[in-house]
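Schema walk-through. Below, the input block comes first and the output block second. Nothing else is stored per chain. Lengths vary across the set, and this one has 199 residues.
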Amino acid sequence: MSCPYCQFPGTGSSRFCPKCGHRLTIPLPSEEEINLSQSRYHNALGNSYFLQGLWGLASIFYQKAINISPELWQSHYNLGCIYYRQGNLSSAEHHFRRVLELQSNYYPARYNLGTIYLKQKHYIKALENLVVVKKQVPYFWPNRLNLAATYYCLGLYQAALEEYLAVHRHNLCQEEALKGIKLTCQKLGLKPSTLISSR
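--- output ---
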């Protein structure tokens, strides 16, 4: 350890610098610790503005946090959510992909990424992500609806129907699930009323 005041090298475990005599009992934080602290502070400010609906200000602070600590996945996720809500899907995709590089099991980012791919009609990419989310959190019904829609768009009507029925069985998202069941039954030549009443 060197003296933070005069930079004298090799003060060792001494409490005082042998050159300038300054007390060394309080170790100074490393640059990495300072950066992480600052980036978390900016992320917290961003969260505060986000909760107030001030997305422009929130995004400024999330970006500051990322500039200081590019590995702070929370800021990438939060910024991705803002871009998604603003309709900037390519920027949102970039940040959600970055989250998954840093935290591969963070299912909200994977769900959002799958949803973006579904909106962009990249159905195979959507399927890859939404299936992983289903394995992680099987009862996350918005994901199951998106998975059903993806199966439907890929022409996998039986798989789509199973997902729509699973959502309907749990009395969630009834309107969307019923609409999906009816459309899928038309493709399969089935009567929706028999499937719904038998559940």
